[in-house]
Amino acid sequence: MALPSSNNLIHVFWHEGMLKHDTGKGVFDTGMDPGFLDVLEKHPENADRVKNMLSILKRGPISPFISWHQGRPALISELLSFHTQEYVNELIEADRTGGKELCGGTFLNPGSWDAALLAAGSTLSAMKHIIDGHGKIAYALVRPPGHHAQPAQADGYCFLNNAGLAVQLALDGGCRKVAVLDIDVHYGNGAAEGFYHSDKVLTISLHMNHGSWGPSHPQGGTIDELGEGEGFGYNLNIPLPNGTGDKGYGYAMQHLVVPAIEKFEPDMMVLVVGQDSSAFDPNGRQCLTMEGYREIGRTVRGMSNKYSNGRLLIVQEGGYHVTYAAYCLHTALEGVLNVAEPLLSDPIAYYPEDESFSTKVIEAIKKYQKEVVPFLKDA
Ligand SMILES: [Zn+2]
């Protein structure tokens, strides 16, 4: 194995206080005990999943390529670059009064607020590390996740938009244009909403076609939610049919994501990564395997080398299979590192993929975007 060089390291930002966010047990993510089940399961967004992500980076074959950094809590003032004061006050009040279910499945319990501040602060530190030139690639290993958190609304296990805060920090720190690629299986509605009117931030989300799920998530994630005003065309939604796997995602990357980023020419790239688009995730209906994540990682690294001088922030979101999410994180980062030979083989992926439907949908999205999105007209 080739030894890592200083410019091929991933700087990981982590703080163990994030494990103190306890989302409880129940029927899946409801927190409910119906009274007739002997075994209540942990909420899918539990500390175990992140403990395995942590340990696989510490003790897995990728460990020589990792440089560890201590995370830190965000200041309340820092949150206001993305969130409203009223919303932040609501969270502080929920914490002060002993906790609250802010929306379906989204529990702010004792310890949760401190964890959320650590997730936001650690992601900001990771971005600052890149902006200050201390490293090219940083990964914020954080929970609670953030990509559903909107400026004034919690949603889908998320309180603070960790990636959104980092994007704003990049813009405030002199970046001209930031591209955000979200491969979590759910729509990255938080960053989309936060930058919906901006042409400085290109948000691209690949997700399953789950649609709106209520008042906390009014966005549909459909192809016609393109942004507004100056931001028109700078929110590209790629809802992929259920069952889309490595080949379908590869096709979408090649035909939709790469051409859009080529046209946009960002000087900072953000990969919002959720391993809930894997074939074994309880919250997702997509079929990515470890190899699919590896390939996405490679493609993203190629784009960041070409456009953003190698600068890439990776932010952790969902991923709820306690074993496979960690394995898929490992291979996504292998792809980002561009290691010649796979470092870790897949112990469980053996389900076939039918890409015939997903490629048709992707072709239709491509046609639509070329017709409607000004900056993609002759892409
Ligand atoms: Zn998700």
From TrEMBL:
- Report the InterPro entries cross-referenced here: HDACs, His_deacetylse_dom, His_deacetylse_dom_sf, Ureohydrolase_dom_sf
| Cofactor dependency | Zn(2+)
Q: Which Gene3D superfamilies match?
A: Histone deacetylase domain
Q: Name one GO biological process term.
A: epigenetic regulation of gene expression
Record keywords, A-Z: Chromatin regulator, Hydrolase, Metal-binding, Repressor, Zinc
- Specify the domain of life of the species encoding this protein: Eukaryota
What region holds the Histone deacetylase domain?
43-334
Sequence similarity = Belongs to the histone deacetylase family.
The name this protein goes by in its record = Histone deacetylase domain-containing protein
**Upper lineage ranks?**
Eukaryota, Viridiplantae, Streptophyta, Embryophyta, Tracheophyta
